[in-house]
Fold:
Amino acid sequence: MNTIITGLQWGDEGKGKIVDFLTESADLVIRSQGGNNAGHTVITKGVKYVLHLLPSGILWEHKLNVIGNGVVIDPGGLVEEIQRIESLGIVITPANLLISDRAHVVLPFHKELDAAREAALGSHQIGTTKRGIGPTYADKINRCGLRMADFNERTFVTDRITHRVAEANEILARYALPTFDAATVCGEVFTAFERLRPHVANTIPVLHAAWKAKQTLLFEGAQGTLLDVDFGTYPFVTSSNTTAGGACTGSGLPPLAIERVIGVCKAYTTRVGAGPFPTGDAGLSDYLHGLGREFGATTGRPRGCGWLDTVLLRFACMVNGVTGLAVTNLDGLDAYDTLQICTGYDIDGTLHTLPPAERHAWSRIVPVYETLPGWQCDTTACTRYPDLPAAAQRYLARFAALCGTPIAFVGVGPDRAQTLTA
Ligand code: IMP
Structure:
């Protein structure tokens, strides 16, 4: 079944693990948005793989992985990632990795421009990953970006980089940030591109041929719905459409190719970077950090943690058309005695069951909670859904009812084997 896997919260929902689990029955795994701001951790047979741009299907033999046109690619970062994953024994060739020739390229100065924009925002910073994601998408939309296909025209690329470096240097100098030499940037980028060249292709006919041949397609979302540039907690969002629609615009496959949307969320909520977090809870954050959990895969930053927020999840299920929930990290709550679920937002005395658009309303939210008993036992050895303690099953059932979406999978630990089918 052709499936989109999408994050329903602020990223870091454990999508990599669910993608990895569902890849067994897929022929192709496709990334369609974001860049190396994403960090997917997959643990299999005791080996930990951290992936940023490579689709998780790279860890399996005989799967084709496609980095679609909607992704922004840092060529040097991708070359390093390929080398790192190859050093763990994975063989990467054009037979298992293709990169869209229409994908836009993150240039070294985009990362510094990301830092400059943050500096300009002062106390209103977004808390970006500083991977140059926003400035690269801005250039794409401003029609002054560079795509993989452009690298076959050396003079065009050299001229454009020279022009953009001059513009970027003016901004960077204003913030006392390092400036760039165009010739050095060109040298670095062309060297990385040459390493990637065998993988660069027109991926659209490849994807359509696979679809027509009834191969199974799996779209691996990055970040999450609340970081979507349209549906997220704007402006505290990333610069791409992280929701299900982005899978089509970011790959060239049409909506009718999609048969299922699995929405991944944690059994609680986490967020990194700045922005509103109505159910954030210092006690739960300290507890989970104390267990060594909830440190970012890309930046190592501790994530803020909070109670399950079904106002956000209900909205996320709507805009993605989620057909089944994959709930991860249930085991993170194993020891808690009572659990809270946010069922609504009280904003100035009015109950809201969907998130507001107004920036100022976010700071006035008083979450309305329902309290459920915890299960206070170890779920990590459960191998079937009915093995879960009754209180855990009740928590999940309430969760699903509040989101209006059935549970499809439950994760009780990082290993591929610790994923239960509901
Ligand atoms: P950017 O994507 O680096 O521009 O960062 C914008 C916002 O998205 C920041 O709050 C980041 O922390 C957040 N963000 C970006 N990628 C991820 C991710 O993969 N997981 C969680 N948060 C992310």
Q: What stands out?
A: The CA atoms of residues 22 and 247 lie 17 Å apart. The chain has three domains: 3-100+200-261, 105-195, 265-421. The chain is about 30% helix and 20% strand.
